[in-house]
Amino acid sequence: MVRVSTSTDDPLTLLMMPPPNESPEERAVREQAEADAQARSDAIDAQIEKDRAAMKRRKKAVKVLLLGQSESGKSATLKNFQMQYAPAEWAAERASWRAVIQLNLIRSVLRMLDALVREMQAASGSPHSPADYLSDSDGEAISSSSRPHPHFAFTDKHRLLKLRLGPLRRVQEDLMRRLGPGSAEVTSGGSALAVPWSKDGRPSSAGGGGRGRSASSPRDEERRQSHEFGVSSTNGWKSALEKIKWGSSGSSGSNGDGAAAQGAQRRREIELDETTDVIVGCKEDMKVLWEDPVVREVLAQRRKRIEDSPGFFLDDIDRVACKDYEPNDEDVVRARLRTVGVQTYQFTIEKGRAAGQDWLMYDVGGTRSSRTAWATFFDDMDAIIFLSPLSCFDEKLREQRKVNRLEDSYLLWRAVCENRVLARTQIILFLNKVDRLQAKLARGVQVREYITSYGDRANDAQTAMKYFQTHFRDIMKEVSPHPRPFFAHFTSVVNTSQTAVTLNAVEESILRTHLRGADLL
Ligand SMILES: Nc1nc2c(ncn2[C@@H]2O[C@H](COP(=O)(O)OP(=O)(O)OP(=O)(O)O)[C@@H](O)[C@H]2O)c(=O)[nH]1
Ligand SMILES: [Mg+2]
Questions:
Q1: I need a surface site. Which of 1, 60, 509, 519 has the fewest CB within 10 A?
Q2: Where are the alpha helices (DSSP H) in 64-203?
Q3: Ligand nearest to the CA of 70
């Protein structure tokens, strides 16, 4: 039989009962002691609850969105993060960048070759086809030759180079096919707006070149765009590199028939070997072309500065055009592969105070037509790293050849700072490509010729950097919905050791904001 305890024989109840002969004073003391104990217990419960919330918050990934126009260095910054915080994965991925770097090199060579061939045709008096005037091999618009042609001293050497480097065109096509849409630059953005969203983060009705789609409501449009973005979220460089590794299916082949998969893998390796063989075979001719004084004259006359273009490897032909070439860290950061859609990147901090903290970084495509999708990420970010390349003050957007790049950057910065959804989000500005700015000013390019408000200031890098920084700060001050601190770093993110120092400061600052959100600081 089960014995049920009653209030009078339960030992705990008996223990808690006041003594039968308790005086009023003793009772007051006892009740006070009980109240104190209860308060201590409540405080402990509250602390446990707070710690639990903090743990939850700590476990919640820090989310960072990288923004900035195309070629501002977003992906290059992300690569620096990866190198610093996920070294094993970085090392494993490095070899896959070889094909991208080979393509970058070939593209520069073919741009020179195209310029040379056109001038040779002009010199021989052969008529140009209309297409000759439209684009280079990489689709870059060139100016029409209405100007008089100077007389270049072409020789048989140039005609031979044209013939001998011809096979690179097929290699370029092969590599582009394998690497997917990110391997080509966007050279026409139609009428896409600089900022295709409103101050409250909604897509502008005219945004993204969206003319002719007015039948859908703004909400439908927003959903449609986020859906598109979701679909394209695997289109980052990882999928491009996977394609190179595993072929266009992106599958490792491990699930299929073993022999067939192995055969397919072997065929891809042979294809990649053939690509490398052609490049190695063209090595000496590529060097001759790059070092040829007449070619240099042609480029100067056409105002082509190949060394300023993304993915410049012409000074590395000896290393890159080798059978056993393996990219080093800096090669990978310098490699150019345009971001299509969004690249999501996750890593966990391994060392230090924030060890174990997960980070999620979002790298978006920066061309005007890609920007519509940015706003769908705004409401959930701890921080934004905004990149503006300072060296671009004299350049035009590829996708809209009339728009000055720096003006475009100012417009974007203004729109990000004034956005109400981002009012409480930390924004960190990277004034990037300082190395290129220094090189440009050193060779005599005058800022005031492109930025009239620059006035009579000295044309040195320090003065220009300070001037641009002040302009960005003033915009932020003017348009931010609430006062916010101005965090800016001068960067050259291709310099990986310098960038590591900047990233440490950035990590610390973002983490503080993240933890402050959980009242941990
Ligand atoms: N010299 C120099 N090159 C840089 C710097 N930052 C980026 N680059 C190069 O500029 C090119 C473009 O950089 P990306 O990181 O691909 O630019 P992005 O902002 O991701 O461009 P999208 O993907 O088109 O939006 C790459 O070849 C980079 O290596 C820099 O500070 N100095
Ligand atoms: Mg990118």
A1: 1
A2: 74-85, 87-94, 98-123, 156-164, 167-179
A3: 1
